[in-house]
Specification:
Alpha-Beta Plaits; about 230 residues
């Protein structure tokens, strides 16, 4: 048991081809197992699944290359991880899985393969539990919606659009204003509680009269506790 949970490296100098292959192989197994568990209950792209599968092995190799200097290894691996965040915005759950893959790779790179496997298994089990039972504990009211409205830049949305929403909602709050179409339009995002969810079409029709028939979207508010706003 002691040998099982000890690092496979007695010292950095003892790392040979067998130890290197053992670490890379274990990292790939843990990485693709984590990727498969994440993909089981979550929407994903093939590229993201592949990223999670290979990320632990990349981080592990980085740690081994820097000769066990954990500080330098974290700095280099952290720089690699920025590629994901710069290429596409990620949800909170995706960020969790990325950091899980990185942490597993750090453990493996230091030679603690058993600890990496146990850690990944525990976190994956927690994610599965929340995927199956989490939404039942945090259901949103069917009247809670996100309303996105595109308006011309010269429209006074604080009176024109807010006035329409006040007629159809019990509560409303403007959560973001974003310029689009090279600054010629604004995209407004509201969080609202509808008085009558069956009148969504009436709400959309009245907003379209005010915003010149530009885009209007009414969406269910996000209920997944792992997702970011």
């Amino acid at each position: 048991m002691i040998d099982l949970f000890a690092s496979i490296f007695d010292s950095v100098e003892t790392m040979g081809p067998l130890e290197f292959l053992a670490c890379v192989g274990a990292a790939l197994v843990i990485g693709f197992a984590t990727s498969a568990i994440y993909a089981y209950k979550n929407e994903h792209t093939t590229g993201f699944a592949l990223t999670i599968g290979v990320l632990p092995s990349i981080v592990a190799v980085v740690i081994m290359v820097v000769s066990g200097d954990i500080g330098a290894g974290i700095a280099v691996a952290g720089a690699f991880s920025l590629v994901r965040f710069r290429s596409a915005p990620g949800t909170a759950k995706e960020i969790v899985v990325i950091f899980l893959a990185m942490a597993s790779g750090l453990l493996i790179g230091m030679g603690f393969i058993a600890y990496a496997a146990i850690f990944a298994a525990i976190i994956c089990a927690v994610m599965l539990l929340f995927s199956n039972f989490g939404p039942k504990m945090g259901l949103k009211n069917a009247s809670d919606k996100i309303v996105k409205v595109t308006v011309p830049e010269d429209l006074d949305y604080s009176t024109e659009i807010d006035g329409v929403l006040e007629k159809f909602t019990d509560k409303m709050s403007l959560v973001s204003v974003k310029s689009v179409n090279m600054g010629s339009m604004f995209r407004l995002t509201y969080r609202v509680t509808l008085k009558d969810p069956s009148r969504q079409k009436d709400l959309i029709d009245q907003i379209r009269v005010r915003n010149g028939n530009l885009e209007v979207a009414v969406m269910q508010e996000e209920t997944d506790m792992f997702r970011g706003l």
